[in-house]
Specification:
There is one protein chain. This protein has one domain: Phosphatidylinositol (PI) phosphodiesterase (TIM Barrel, Alpha-Beta Barrel). Helices cover 34% and strands 17% of the residues. The protein is built from nine helices and nine strands. It has helices at residues 19-27, 68-72, 92-101, 122-131, 146-155, 169-177, 188-194, 210-218, 229-240, and strands at residues 3-6, 32-39, 45-47, 107-112, 138-143, 161-164, 183-185, 201-202, 223-226. Helix 1 (19-27) packs parallel to helix 3. The longest helix has 12 residues, at 229-240. The two termini are 13 Å apart. The structure holds SN-glycerol-3-phosphate and magnesium ion. The site of magnesium ion (MG) has 3 residues, from strand 2. The site of magnesium ion has 3 residues, from strand 2. It comes from Vagococcus acidifermentans. Residues 2-236 form the GP-PDE domain. InterPro entries: GP_PDE_dom, PLC-like_Pdiesterase_TIM-brl.
């Protein structure tokens, strides 16, 4: 069965990477949830997609230049809809606690966002958070940055790791030749062009149209990342009945 991962939470219906988006993703029965982790100026892990807060909050500037108190003072919901005004950029701990409290028992895909900026020590910090206790969910790591995945492999050899890429052939070769990388997260366009031919698990992004969802289900891919998990679950259900 193709697993359905909610991309940045239920990004299509809620402001991405907020507690509201993660709560919705778990509530609709997503098999997995994906989030993006960055590091604040004062060394706290926070969950947001961009390096800058500009697109998804009422503030401006880099996460790396702000303390967690400054980050928490921003509104991360109003840009999406007035209904979500008051949502904030969550810390990594807040998301973990929420999912654990909800007894979410699917997969958590932790994307470490080191492809544009270097966040010294982020890998160690993430690993410390994750290994300090047991969680209701199963987690794995993903990144566009091979060096980050290598560090995670040294820290947690048993935790699965996925390489993210858009269309880079170099990354495909790297993933193919690295035995501890168990999955590739490519763009859906790359998957359709490669006709799904790949020896490792494929969980493409971002699979939002009915046509792309059908393609992935029919080719029995390992998973998809979608902004509309509820829609994807309904379609998969419809196909199997
Ligand atoms: O892991 C899939 C996807 O999250 C990668 O792209 O830019 O949305 O983080 P992005
Ligand atoms: Mg991501």
């Amino acid at each position: 069965m193709t697993l359905i991962f909610a991309h940045r939470g239920s990004k299509g219906t809620h402001p991405e990477n907020t507690l509201a988006a993660f709560q919705e993703a778990a509530a609709v029965g997503s098999d997995g949830i994906e989030l993006d982790v960055h590091l604040s100026k004062d060394g706290q892990l926070v969950v947001i997609h961009d390096e800058l807060v500009d697109r998804t909050t009422n503030g401006q500037g880099y996460i790396k230049d702000k303390t967690v108190a400054e980050i928490k003072a921003l509104d991360a919901g109003g840009w999406f809809s007035s209904e979500f005004q008051g949502e904030t950029i969550p810390t990594f701990d807040e998301v973990l606690s929420l999912l654990d409290r909800m007894l979410f028992n699917g997969y958590l895909n932790i994307e470490i966002k080191t492809d544009k900026l270097d966040y010294p020590g982020i890998e160690q910090l993430v690993s410390e958070r994750m290994t300090r206790r047991e969680w209701s969910f199963i987690y794995f790591y993903s990144s566009f940055n091979f060096a980050t995945l290598k560090k995670m492999q040294a820290l947690e050899p048993v935790t699965p790791k996925a390489m993210i890429m858009s269309t880079s052939q170099k990354k495909v070769s790297l993933a193919r030749s690295t035995d501890w990388i168990d999955a590739l997260h490519p763009s859906i366009d790359w998957v359709k062009e490669a006709k799904g031919q790949f020896s490792k698990k494929l969980r493409p992004w971002t699979v939002n149209s009915k046509e792309d969802m059908m393609y992935c289900f029919e080719h029995q891919l390992a998973g998809i990342h979608t902004d509309f998990p509820e829609k994807a679950i309904a379609l998969r259900q419809q196909l199997s009945s």
